[in-house]
Design a protein that fits this description.
The chain has about 60 residues and is an alpha+beta fold. The chain has 3 helices and 3 strands; from the N terminus they run αββαβα. It is elongated.
């Protein structure tokens, strides 16, 4: 029986922590940074976590 391939685009964007949470980087931090406040850019630098509803879907895509 065939195996399910890893979705490479998702694997580059998400990672699973030791506790099973799905970690991600925030968007809107590439260009037009002069319009954004320093506080907004500072918060975009930190990693975020995917909601529990979406975590199961992403884990099935990146399945390590």
């Amino acid at each position: 029986m065939g195996k399910i391939k890893t979705h490479r685009a998702s694997a580059k964007r998400f990672s699973v922590t030791a506790n099973g949470k799905v970690k991600m980087n925030h968007c809107h931090h590439r260009h037009k940074l002069g319009l954004k406040t320093a506080k907004r850019k500072r918060h975009l630098r930190t990693a975020g976590y995917v909601s529990e509803a979406m975590a199961a879907n992403i884990k099935s895509l990146i399945q390590k």
